[in-house]
Amino acid sequence: MSMLDVRNLHASYGDVAVLHDVNLHVDEGEIIAIVGSNGAGKTTLMRALSGLMTRSRRMSATGTVVLDGEDISRLIASRRLRRGMALVPEGRQVWPELSVEDNLLLGGFTRRRESTVVAEQLDYVLTTFPRLRERLQQDAGTLSGGEQQMLAIGRALVSRPRLMLFDEPSMGLAPVIVDQILSSITQLRDGGTTVVLVEQMVNLALEIADRGYVLERGHVVISGPAAELTANEQVRAAYLGVTSTTYESDTDD
C-alpha cells in the first residue's frame, strides 16, 4: 500500500483553476520528484497536499488525499502535520525576528506534550546541520540564505515527520549549498523518511529521485522512474536543454 495516494485532485484560486485531475502515489521510502515549468502548478500541489488550500472563495482544493490508508482530505494543515506530513515551503519562510532555537522549537508545536521527542529531534537537527548549533541564539533573519534553508528543513524535522514535502529547496542558493541541501534530502530518505520534492533544477531532482511526475498547466503529462524521465526526449528537450540531435552528436564524439 502506498504511503500517500492522491486522486482526482483539483485546485483553484478564485475562478482560476490551477490543478486538473491530478493523480499520483508515493511509496514508503521513496523520493518523488515533481517537475515542470514555472506556472505548472507545482507549489499549488504542495499547498494542497499539506492542507494549506482551504475551502474558501479565495482558494480551494477538491479530490482525495490518503495518508497511510486514512483520508485526510478535509484535515487542516496542523492536523496533517500531526499525522506525519511536514512541508518545507518555497522561500523558506522562517520567523526572522525569532532566534534559530525558537524557530526550531516552534516546528515541534504539535508534539509540545512530548518533550523527550522534541529534544531528540532538536539534537538530530543540530547534528545534521551543525552550523545551526553555532547560531542557536542568533535571529533567523540574519542568517544566510543557505542557513535559512537548513533552518526551514530543521524546523520541519523537529515534528518527526514520516513524509516531507520540499518546495523549491535550491531557490536562490549557491551551487555548493544546493549540493549540501540535496545531499541532506537523500540522507533523510536513506534514514527512512519519505520525500516529495519540487525542484526547479530538474536534472538534480531526477538525479536523486526514485520516480517523478511532470506537471504541465496543472496536468500530470508524464510519470515514471527517474531514469526513464531523464532519458525521455520530451523531458530532455523541455527541461534539460538537450535535443535528440545534441544527444546524438555528443554520443558520436
Structure description:
Strands 6-7-8-3-9-10 form a six-stranded mixed beta sheet, sandwiched between helices. Strands 2-1-4-5 form a four-stranded antiparallel beta sheet, with helices on one face. About 40% of the residues lie in helices and about 25% in strands. The termini are far apart. It has helices at about 40-50, 75-80, 100-105, 115-130, 130-135, 145-155, 175-190, 200-210, 225-230, 235-240, 245-250; strands at about 5-15, 15-25, 30-35, 60-65, 70, 85-90, 165, 195-200, 210-215, 220-225. The chain is of the alpha/beta class and about 250 residues long. The longest helix has 16 residues, at about 175-190.
As residue ranges, the low-confidence spans are: 245-253
Q: Could you give a short account of the major beta sheet?
A: 6 strands, mixed
Strand proportion: 25-35%
The dominant shape is globular
> How many whole angstroms does the radius of gyration measure?
18 Å
Question: Helices and strands, in N-to-C order?
Answer: EEEHEEHEHHHHEHEHEEHHH
State the distance separating the first and last CA atoms: 46 Å
Structural class: alpha/beta
Fraction of residues in helix: 25-40%
Mean pLDDT: 90
Number of helices: 11
Instruction: Kindly report the spatial arrangement of strands forming the biggest sheet.
Output: 6-7-8-3-9-10
Question: How many E strands?
Answer: 10
